[in-house]
């Protein structure tokens, strides 16, 4: 089932969910073993958290991405735990800064997203919470590939300006409700997302943010991304607790 929606940016301050003033009960930086490497991550868990969202960052980005940190903070205000992890080690980031190869190694990135997602149910901080994935740019492809092999371990996926074409071989295997968010003025990525929708059999929705470009830097654009992601995860992780 597919749907395409053109939405109007609305600042989050005008329509926050109940409990919007909830602050994080736990907020810490951790090191998470994944295979033969250890990845740095920032974890925040609000009081009475109803779900956990793992972020898969885009090409050349990491857990300090100001856009993803803004979205994460709004998810926390809505009662969702967040895990922002670097998908590359410090040494790998140095190599990637020179070659640009690792940021497009979707197999590697998906393996790490999946391994992190597998750890969360047993984690002493976020364990027991339903898990969703939020991917940006190439990180969205990694999130979709990871989700495709974890139909029970991942409950929902949100893509911001994603490159689902890089996950083309996995799209038909994704079973989780998936939200694709793309800027109206990002025509190449918009076409790629429309094509990806046709390859998916899971419930998928495309939200087009008017006047927004790839990085959603326009006034109100990132607020709209955060609101859409918040509502999607509340619907699919927390049983529809979003407000109008």
Automatic annotation (TrEMBL):
<keyword id="KW-0378">Hydrolase</keyword>
<dbReference type="Pfam" id="PF01738">
    <property type="entry name" value="DLH"/>
</dbReference>
<dbReference type="InterPro" id="IPR050261">
    <property type="entry name" value="FrsA_esterase"/>
</dbReference>
<protein>
    <submittedName>
        <fullName>Dienelactone hydrolase family protein</fullName>
    </submittedName>
</protein>
<comment type="similarity">
    <text>Belongs to the AB hydrolase superfamily.</text>
</comment>
<feature type="domain" description="Dienelactone hydrolase">
    <location>
        <begin position="68"/>
        <end position="221"/>
    </location>
</feature>
<dbReference type="InterPro" id="IPR029058">
    <property type="entry name" value="AB_hydrolase_fold"/>
</dbReference>
<dbReference type="InterPro" id="IPR002925">
    <property type="entry name" value="Dienelactn_hydro"/>
</dbReference>
<dbReference type="GO" id="GO:0016787">
    <property type="term" value="F:hydrolase activity"/>
</dbReference>
């Amino acid at each position: 089932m597919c749907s395409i929606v053109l939405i109007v940016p609305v600042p989050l301050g005008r329509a926050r969910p109940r409990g919007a003033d909830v602050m994080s009960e736990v907020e810490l930086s951790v090191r998470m073993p994944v295979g033969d490497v250890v990845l740095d991550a920032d974890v925040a868990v609000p009081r009475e958290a109803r779900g956990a969202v793992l972020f898969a960052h885009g090409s050349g980005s990491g857990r300090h991405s100001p856009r993803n940190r803004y979205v994460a903070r709004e998810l926390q205000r809505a009662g969702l735990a967040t895990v922002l992890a670097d998908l590359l080690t410090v040494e790998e980031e140095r190599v990637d800064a020179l070659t640009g190869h690792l940021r497009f190694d979707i197999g590697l990135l998906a393996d790490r997203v999946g391994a992190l997602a597998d750890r969360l149910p047993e984690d002493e901080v976020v364990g027991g919470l339903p898990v969703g994935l939020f991917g940006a740019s190439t990180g969205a492809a990694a999130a979709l590939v990871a989700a495709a092999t974890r139909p029970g371990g991942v409950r929902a996926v949100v893509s911001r300006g994603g490159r689902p074409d890089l996950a083309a071989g996995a799209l038909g295997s994704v079973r989780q409700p998936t939200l694709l968010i793309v800027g109206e003025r990002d025509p190449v990525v918009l076409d790629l997302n429309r094509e990806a929708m046709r390859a998916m059999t899971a419930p998928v929705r495309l939200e087009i943010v008017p006047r927004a470009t790839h990085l959603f830097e326009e006034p109100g654009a990132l607020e709209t991304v955060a609101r859409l992601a918040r509502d999607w995860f509340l619907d699919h992780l927390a049983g529809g607790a979003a407000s109008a």
